[in-house]
Records
---
Amino acid sequence: MAVIGEPQRIEYVEPLELPPPLRELPIEAPVSTPDEQEVPA
Amino acid sequence: MKHDAVPDFCEYRVGWRAWKPMEPHYLCAMNGNFIWTPKRIVQADKEPTMTNTHGVWAFTTLFDLRRMGYDTSGNILGRVAFWGTVVHHETGLRAEFAYPLELYVDRSENKRLGYRSSSHDELWERALRIGAEYNVPVKLLVPSEEETIALQKLEAARIEEERLRMLAMVEHRKQAQKDREAKRRAIARAALDFAKKHGFKM
C-alpha cells in the first residue's frame, strides 16, 4: 500500500449518526466494493 | 469485528479521494473497477486489518492526494466520511464503510495536463449532476495563495524528478552501449589471440 504509506494504527469508529448526505434517506444495504488495491494516478 | 477499546471519538473520519466521473452521473473508482452507488453506504469487501490491503481508502489531506498526482484534469475530488474499522496509514486511511460528504471540481492552475477551459466547464456540469444524484454539495476548489505556492513547488519537483529520470535513462543506455562495445572488442581480441596461437590467418 505504497500510495498511502505504511499502516500505523487501527481503531473502530462508530458515529452517532450517518454522514449528512445519508441522514434523510431510507437506509438500504451497503454496496460492497472489490478489494481496492493501490492504483496508478 | 468490533475492537475491545471504546471508540475515542463518536464521529466518522474524513479523507480525500478522487474519482473518474462516469456517465450518466456516477463516481467511478480510479482503477475503474467499482462504481460508488448513489445514496448507498459503500462497504469494503473485507474488513481492513493492519496486515491486509482491504478497505475503502483515501488520503488524509488534499495535499497528499495532489502530491501523488490524483488531481489530474477530469477527475472529481471529494471529502469522504469513513467509519467502522479504520486503519490509519502514514498519509491516508482504509475503512470498512464510506460515503462522500462533498465533491470538488479543481480550479487549480497547476494541472499536470495543463488544460482547463471548456473541459473544465463540462466537468463542473457533470459534477453538479453527480452531486444531486449522491445528495452531496458540489464546490469549486480554489487553492489559497499558500497552497498555490506549495503546488508550484510540487510541480517543479515533479519536473525535476522526470528530468533526472530521463538523464539516468540516457546514461544507462550510453553505459549499456559502451559495455556492448567492450564485450565485442574482447571477443575480437580473444579470437585474434586464438588464431595467432594456432597459426590461423585472419
---
Amino acid sequence: MSFAVCAILETADGKLKKSAAEVMGEGRRVANALGGNLDAMLIGSDTTALAEEAATLGADRVLVADHADLASFTLDGYLKPCLKGIAASTPKVVILAASVTGKDLAPAIAAPTSSGLLTDVTAIEVVDGAVTAKKPVYAGKATATIGGGSADCVVVTIRPNVFEPAAAEAGRTAPIEALEYAGADGIRTIVKEVLAKASEKLDLTEADIIVSGGRGMKGPENWPVLEKLADAVGGVLGASRAVVDAGWREHEEQVGQTGKTVSPKLYIACGISGAIQHLAGMRTSKCIVAINTDAEAPIFKIADYGIVGDLFEVVPVLTEELVKLRS
Amino acid sequence: MEILVCIKRVPDSAAKIKVGADSLSIDPSGVEYVISPYDEMALERALQLKDEQGATVTVVCLGVPAAQKEIRQALAMGADKAIHIKDEGGSRGPLEIAQALSDVIRERPYDMVLFGRQSIDADNSAVGVIAAGLLDVPIVTLVTKLDVADGVATVHREAEAGTEVIEVKLPAAFTAQRGLAEPRYASIKGIMMAKKKPIEELPAPEPRGTLKFEGLEPPAARTAGKIVGEGAKAVPELVRLLRQEAKVI
Ligand SMILES: Cc1cc2nc3c(=O)[nH]c(=O)nc-3n(C[C@H](O)[C@H](O)[C@H](O)COP(=O)(O)OP(=O)(O)OC[C@H]3O[C@@H](n4cnc5c(N)ncnc54)[C@H](O)[C@@H]3O)c2cc1C
Ligand SMILES: Nc1ncnc2c1ncn2[C@@H]1O[C@H](COP(=O)(O)O)[C@@H](O)[C@H]1O
C-alpha cells in the first residue's frame, strides 16, 4: 500500500506536542478513507524516543530528520528536510497543526510541491478520494467548505483542540527511516536570542481549560482571584483585548480576532462583555461559562451556562467548591 | 529604502456577516470595508521607518475595483504610491493571491515586503509565506518589532517558546503581528494629498480555481445557554451542571 497521508509532528522541550496526537488521529482517519498508509514525519534533534512514540500513535512508518542544527525551528532550516520527507512519502494529504510553526511550514510546503492548501480547518471529509474541509472564515462568523481542487496533494492544517487525538498503543512499532540532512546551510534568518515568556504556562491554544478576565476585573491587582480559579481547575489564564490594551496583562494572553483563537473544553469568561472580536477567538470552545453583572451582556448569548453577578463574589465561591471537589 | 506593503480590503472586524443568496459569498449589503487590521499595522511600521530614515512606501493590493477606497486610505496615511491589481471577481485561494502579488513585486526594486500576519476574512496566514517563497527571499512571520540598519533587519518574532530576536539581511519579507505599530489616523492634509498620488492599475490574472469553494454557511449555532442563577448562590448548581451535564470537570 502506498502512503496516503504524511503527518508532520511538532516537538517542544524534547516531547511530542499535544497537537501531534491530534494530527496522528485525524491523519489515520484520512489515510483509511483514502485507502493508504500513514507516514509520520519528525524534525528536530535527539528524536529517537519520539520516533518510537510516533509509532505507538499509529504511524506505519516514521521519517526522521535529526540534527543538532534542527534543535529549534527556523523556516529555512525545517523546510528542506520537510520537502525531502514529502518527496519520499508522495502523499495525497500532508497534515499539520495550525500552530505557529504549522502556519509557517504549511504554506511554504504547498507552493513548491504544487499542492492545494487548506488552513486552520475544523473538519476533513474524503469523498471518492477527493478531500474537502470545513474552515472558519471571517473570524468564525461563517464556515466555508473548500475542496482541495485538482492538485495531486493537499496540505491541510488542523485547528488545535478540535480533532480526536490518537490513543497510544503501547508496544506498537514501525520502521523508522532517516532523512538525509547535512546541517545548517542556507538559513537566512539568524535567531540571536530567545527572550523568555512572561509565564512558563502551557500555550493557550493547547489548553483544555481557560479562565479569562476582562475589564470587569477592575485592575491588574485583582488577578489573583482568577489565578486561584485557574489553579483549582488546572486551567490557563486568558484575557480580553481591553485589559491587554490597558497594560494589565500581556498580549500573549489575549483571546480574539487580534489575539489567539482557542477551542478549549471549558472557557470561563469573567467580566468580559462578549464583543464580536472576542467571540471570534473562543466561540468554538466546547463549553462556555460567563460570569457578568450585566444580564444583557452579549457573552450570555453564546455561553452554555451563565451566572449574573459580581465576579468578586462568584469566583471565590466557585474556586472553593472546585477545590473541595478535588480533595 | 524601498518598502512594499501588501494590503487587503476586508469587511470591518465589527461587521455582521450574512451569507449571500448564492451560499458561496457574503451578502455585502451594509458591510463596511477596511484595510485588514494587521496590514494596517505593517503599513504603519513602514511609514515610521520612512519618517525615521527615509523610504519610499508602495502599497500593493489585489482587489475589486472598489478597493480603490482602501488604497486611497493607505495613501492618505502616508504611502507614496500604490499598485492596484484589479480583480473583477472570482474566488482565489492563498496560492493564487500570492502568485499574483509576487509576479508584480518581482518586477520592482524592493528592500522589504511587508504583509499582515493574516487577513481577517480568509484567515489563512499563508499569502506572505507563499509569496516570499516565490520571490526567494527570507521571511520572518509574527513580527512585533522591526528595525533596520546597514541593510540588516533586526526583528522580534512572537514564537511559542518566547520572543525570538532575529537578524536577517535585506531584501526580506515580514508579517506583522499585533504590537508592531498602532496605525495612525489620516490627517486632512494627508487625505488631500492622497488624491494626487499615483495608483498604477494592472489587470489580475484569470482565477485558476486551484481550490474549489463549495459553500459558505453561518457557523454552527451555539444554542443560547441558560442563566444558572444570580450571584454566589448559583455556584453549586453551576458546578453540578459542569460535572454532570457538560462533563468538563
Ligand atoms: C480591529 C479590532 C480587533 C479587536 N480584537 C479583539 C480581540 O482580539 N480580543 C478582544 O477581546 N477584543 C478585541 N477587540 C475589542 C473588542 O471590541 C472589545 O472592546 C473588548 O473585547 C472588550 O473587552 P472587555 O469585555 O474586557 O471589556 P468591556 O466591553 O468593557 O466589558 C466588561 C464587562 O465586565 C462586566 N463587569 C463589570 N464589573 C463586573 C463585575 N464586578 N463582575 C462581573 N462582571 C463585571 C461588565 O458588565 C461588562 O460586560 C477588537 C476591536 C477591534 C476594533
Ligand atoms: N488580495 C490581497 N491583496 C494584497 N495583499 C493580500 C491579499 N490577500 C492577502 N494579502 C496579504 O497577505 C496577508 C496574509 O493573508 P492571508 O494568507 O489571507 O491570511 C495579508 O495580511 C496581506 O498582507
